[in-house]
Design a protein that fits this description.
By secondary structure, the protein is an all-alpha fold. The chain has helices at about 1-15, 20-55, 60-110.
């Protein structure tokens, strides 16, 4: 009886073990996203400093306006780069979660001695 109970607990532990990887993937995702967010915050600080510098060194309205245009172009480019980085991070996280969940599901079923269900074949009705 005791061996049977221990066996049940062991199977349960093995069944849920693969899903611990989801936590690891989640932490890696959070790190990547926080890094990009920190870079965005840094860009805002840089922009503020550059705008103050432009205001303080401008000799006339035209010079100030030109500098503001240059800053707008520069920081718009940075914002686009950060957006791409963020989308790549989200896409990578999504792929990692799907991969870990799929293999984890299969490993969990194997741990409890069950086979994964066969995929249903899609049937198409031919147009008459």
């Amino acid at each position: 009886m005791t061996n049977e109970i221990l066996d049940i607990f062991d199977k349960g532990r093995k069944a849920f073990e693969p899903f611990g990887k989801l936590g690891e993937v989640g932490m890696e995702a959070a790190e990547k996203i926080f890094k990009v967010e920190a870079d965005i915050a840094s860009d805002f600080i840089d922009l503020t400093v550059d705008q103050l510098r432009a205001f303080g060194t401008a000799e006339d309205v035209g010079g100030y306006t030109r500098e503001q245009g240059r800053l707008a172009t520069e920081y718009t480019g940075r914002a686009q780069e950060r957006t791409v980085e963020l989308m790549e991070a989200f896409t990578g996280v999504q792929k990692a979660f799907v991969s870990v969940a799929k293999t984890g599901y299969e490993e969990a079923l194997a741990a409890v001695g069950k086979a994964a269900p066969a995929k249903a074949k899609a049937t198409r009705k031919k147009a008459a």
